Amino acid sequence: MRNLRPIRNSTVNLSGPSLFGSPTAGRFLVDAINGTDSIDIIGIGDSNTGFNNYGYLAGLDRVLGYSYGIPPYASGLSPGGLESGPTTRAERSMMIGNLFGWGGTTDAGGGGTTQTFINAVASDSDAQALRAALGQDTSIAWRWQGFNWAGQFVAAGVSYTSAVDKNYVGIRTDNPINNGFSTAGGVSCQYRCVYAKFATTGGQFKPVVWNSSSATVASSYTSTAGGSAGNWFDVALLNFTTSSGTVLEQRGGWDGFSQGAPATGPMSCLWHSFIKRNQKGYAVNQFISHGGLTTTQIADRVESTGDLFSAYMQEIRRRQIEAGGSGRAIVFINSGINGPDTGASYIAAMNRIVDRCISKWTAFGGIEGNIAFVISPTHPVVSVAGNSWDSSRAATTAAAGNYARQNAGRNITTFDIGTVYPTSRLLTGTIPAGTLYDAGGQSHLTSTTTAQTNGYDAVAHSIISSLIANA
Q1: pLDDT in tens, 264-316
Q2: What whole-number distance in Å separates Cα of residue 147 and Cα of residue 153?
Q3: How confident is the model at residue 93 (pLDDT cuts 50, 70, 90)?
Q4: What local confidence, expressed as pLDDT, does residue 8 receive?
Q5: Domain boundaries of the chain, sorted by first residue
């Protein structure tokens, strides 16, 4: 880890050519690089945010970890479940060394039955009450890494435990949170489960962490009762030490995983993750990556999440403080290509997103000065069939720059990708490696990790290096 120069006066208002507005996001990054504080990146945007299980967020993750040597302090904050049809899924996350798994719309598991929260809302009174209490608009679907968010739900009176590869978050052997930057392991970590609280009594669960040779089970059950106004979610913690000698993949879940500790409903896991204890560093987290949406539609979805977003923001801050940071975040917002977006409509939608993020960040104790925003209108294109972004991008990006300058006091920065990567450079990439546009069209960039033509990594590096240089 390197030490960077002192930070400039934070009242500086950046005025281009690539950065506009506040230098605060860069200041946060400098502190993370110097090891004096931690930073969480929160992604909100269209498909480019997490395209092909990658996108800008994977690029940012790789740049922070590999290029700048910041240690990760946490895995990405993941949903307790996803609405993906009836098939159980186990996926490698876009982030370095992270995994996640979930049951389908319904799942018989190793005992009992669970279903997605969104599916349960159609008929279960506890799920309906929770949806109303959280203020979630379930008529507006929103996507996390390409799948609709839908935390897993166990109905009242049902005792459920999953079979393998369901309802977990995981850290692979190559994740520094697990291996401690060595082959020795033995790292002090914590599994964290953000769960819903209900007015109905009787619900309980035990967090469990397991690997191929052993399991750690919480010593007592966590009750899901006690839900009331302003008190509809909480977090359950399980401290453990990763395997030593031989590093093994670690998985954490809430349903007992056949360890004699089934979850009893009503119970719903909203979010969960791992942290490395006593570690300042970074984490990259997806919130919305919803392909095909305009900026206005993205704002609609941010506003539709209700206090699910409060639970998310509170946990981002709370787990960072638990690991040794002060509770800081940068919200990275990328959109535009799915217009029509005018400068006015783009800024109106962006202001709604910023307002909601600040509201949810501060609702449970977050300091407004500890959240910053990096707005990045979609990369330039030469031409995309049926799309006007090639002609509307300049005006939209200029409006975004003016918006950041006018709102620098709210820690808002705009980055213009086109000043570093114009279409001519995106078309040619790193000669002779080839184009940085995706083979499927110019709406997306390449995401290969086996060649020098990774468009998302390239742009992410230009964003981070520009923010740091202007801190």
Answers
A1: 999 999 999 999 999 999 999 999 999 999 999 999 999 999 999 999 999 99
A2: 17
A3: low
A4: 46
A5: 14-71+282-469, 78-276
The residue type at 231: N
Joined together, the tokens standing for residue 385 give 């069939």
The tokens of 98 are what? 């992270």
Q: Which class is domain 14-71+282-469?
A: alpha beta
Are 145 and 289 contacting, i.e. CB atoms less than 8 angstroms apart?
yes
Name the token pair of 340. 């029509």
In the three-class reduction of DSSP (H, G, I as helix; E, B as strand; rest coil), residue 33 is classed as: helix
User: Does residue 6 contact residue 30 with C-beta atoms inside 8 Å?
Assistant: no
CA distance 356 to 296: 13
pLDDT tens for each residue of 181-238: 776 778 899 999 999 999 999 999 999 999 888 889 999 999 999 999 999 999 999 9
Tokens of 414: 């705009």
Among 277, 253, 92, residue whose Cα is nearest residue 180: 277
27 Cβ partners below 8 Å, 6+ apart?
A: 7, 10, 471
Confidence of residue 6 (pLDDT cuts 50, 70, 90): very low
How far is residue 382's CA from residue 389's CA, in Å, rounded to a whole number?
9
Q: Which amino acid makes up residue 137?
A: D
Give the C-alpha separation, 404 to 408, whole Å. 6
Q: Domain 78-276: state its class.
A: mainly beta
> Residue 1's pLDDT band (boundaries 50, 70, 90)?
very low
Q: In 3-state terms, what secondary structure has residue 376?
A: strand
The single residue listed with the structure tokens 């609280």 is 197
Q: Rounded mean pLDDT of 357-362?
A: 98
Which letter, b or e, does each residue of 198-226 get, where b requires 16 or more Cβ atoms within 10 Å of its Cβ? bebeebbbbbbbbbeeeebbbeebbbbee
Strands 371-377 and 412-415: parallel
CA distances (Å), 429 to each of 46, 61, 174, in order? 23, 21, 29
Query: In 3-state terms, what secondary structure has residue 421?
Result: coil
SS3 content of the chain, % helix, strand, coil (to 5): 30, 30, 40
Cβ proximity of 34 and 28 under 8 Å = no
- 343-363 and 307-323 helices, crossing angle to 10°: 60
pLDDT digits (tens, 9 = 90+) for 386-402: 678 988 999 999 999 99
